[in-house]
Design brief:
Layout lengths: L1 E2 L13 E6 L6 H10 L17 H8 L5 E7 L7 H13 L4 E2 L3 E6 L2 E6 L7 H14 L9 H8 L4 H10 L12 E2 L10 H16 L4 E2 L1 E7 L18
Parallel strand pairs: 1-9
Antiparallel strand pairs: 2-3, 2-9, 4-8, 5-6, 6-7
Helix pairs in contact: 1-7
Length: about 240
């Protein structure tokens, strides 16, 4: 498997935080549909938000991250680690992985959000996907600067015991045993948004592409260049095939 491609190179990239994501290839129908829904393409192509079937207020928050599912959550780099090191180690990890068929996805309500999730959590196709996420968390953890006490305290609210343990060990509460594959489509919904209507609209919009087979052939590095710049997006930077 290869690390994903995008418009940036190591020599041009500033990094505040970086993450390892699953994202469909930029030429795939699901990537195009997901980017249209969010109103922006993290691969560099521009979309007017009028291409989206929903109001911008619903998608502004997830749009700043780009269309993705998290494998290793966003993290700051440990002292002495730079973009070249992250790229090399991510490529080394990708080179050990074999492409696989993704589980079928469907539009679902996840807590107070709308997201694409596996249609059947017991699907055997979940096994390689779960293993991929676990490998990304574990194998690249030496790159991560640990969160400070203020960050940890801010994240602890509302977590259960297992999630707290993950936060303290891995810097994020929803990894490994507490991880759930999802591709976020909306901000947190409120009653005034008519969640059932938003869900139905997303189901209609994504139905044609979700009927197509989907493979996981690569993993992607997405970057937040600077604090506050996240609103401009999380572009992936160029990573040759591993």
């Amino acid at each position: 498997m290869a690390s994903g491609v995008g418009p940036y190179t190591c020599s041009t990239m500033q990094i505040h935080r970086i993450a390892v994501f699953f994202a469909p290839a930029f030429d795939q129908p699901l990537w195009h549909s997901g980017s249209r829904w969010l109103g922006r393409d993290a691969g560099g192509e521009l979309f007017a938000h009028d291409a989206s079937p929903v109001d911008e207020s619903l998608t502004r928050a997830p749009a700043r991250y780009g269309f993705h599912a998290t494998l290793k959550p966003p993290f700051r780099l440990r002292a002495g680690i730079d973009a070249s090191t992250v790229l090399a180690q991510t490529q080394a990890l990708a080179a050990t992985l074999k492409p696989f068929v993704m589980p079928a996805l469907s539009v679902q309500r996840l807590d107070d959000f709308i997201a694409l999730q596996p249609a059947n959590a017991q699907d055997a196709a979940m096994a390689p996907l779960t293993a991929l996420a676990a490998a990304a968390v574990r194998e690249l953890d030496e790159l991560r600067a640990p969160p400070d006490a203020q960050e940890l305290n801010a994240r602890r609210a509302g977590l259960n015991t297992a999630q707290t343990e993950m936060l303290e060990r891995w810097g994020y509460p929803f990894v490994l045993d507490t991880w759930r594959f999802h591709m976020t489509l909306t901000r947190r919904l409120q009653a005034a948004d008519d969640p059932a209507a938003v869900l139905a609209r997303a189901e209609r919009f994504f139905a044609p592409v979700l009927a197509l087979p989907l493979r996981c052939d690569d993993i992607c590095l997405f970057v937040e260049p600077a604090p506050g710049a996240a609103r401009a997006g999380w572009p992936a930077f160029t990573a040759p095939a591993g």
